[in-house]
Amino acid sequence: MISDLLSRSKSTLSFEVFPPKKEDEFQTVFQILDSLAALSPDFISCTYGAGGSKAGKTVEIASYIQHKLNIDAIAHITCVGFKHSDLEQNCARLEEENIRHVLALRGDRPTWMSDEQFQNREFSYASDMVRYLKEHTSLLIAGACYPEKHYEAQTAEQDLANLKKKVDAGVSFLITQLFFDNDIFYRFRERLKQMDITVPVCAGIMPITSSRQLGTSVTLSGSSIPKKLSDIIARYGDDKDDMRKAGIDFAIRQILDLQEHGVDGIHLYTMNRPQTTAEIAAAIR
Ligand code: FAD
Asked: Could you give the C-alpha distances from 230 to 181, 223, 224, 225, 236, in angstroms and in order?
């Protein structure tokens, strides 16, 4: 069980991958997973398309991780576009494949969803899905959290109060949104303690290996960029190789500092890049 691993004194190392976009790309993702498995992670999670489009693909990838690679798999699942019957179907599929862990997410509003559909969605928040999963399945449930606050929350206090509801509904451990400033994470951890949120927390770390990532994943995450990282991008952003090296070095230093400060786990957003992941794993173990 992943929550048992996370409760030990040694910090865990885990990876996030995304499923293939097209049917004929499964083999490529399986090869990526084979390379990642050689790094002996404690678990691997697989993302899920917001509107439910990649549901099957997520379960198929999670099944490969769990049964072919013999590594604990977490299937992400988002409920924003779900009716109860959709969730039932997805749970049945997870059960068929004997996947035991899910990351229960609300998801972002998909582009196809009208205001009315969004307002009348069956699962308002991730915590509603957590409650359903607790009642109807034996799945072990992880949840997402945001050291810099979720973008919809008015205040960090409200976001934390909502997080408390989610954890109390049955979340066994948390994975954070990516962040680059460890002090923000340490303050967040203190606030969790004050709120009596005591489940293990994995720190989500994304290595920035090209300046283009800032325009996509990072902007979407709403994470702030510390001066140290913006200086690296200003200095090396135009040189592919140097930027890659400097970005990996930044991630390694960030992780070593987190480990020194007793982080429960490091969850690497691999972007399906096994080579970068391998370089980081070698340096932090
Ligand atoms: P929630 O926990 O429901 O929170 C959403 C917002 O609602 C927050 O502002 C919260 O404060 C508020 N809220 C919660 N409960 C209440 C309540 N009872 N009353 C009032 N307000 C409330 N997206 C994908 O599409 N696919 C993925 O695979 C995926 N993986 C992710 C993995 C991680 C580790 C993280 C951090 C995010 C991931 N996301 C993914 C993005 C995620 O779906 C979005 O950030 C989404 O907007 C919020 O999902 P959530 O589960 O955190 O929502």
From this structure: 12, 13, 10, 6, 10
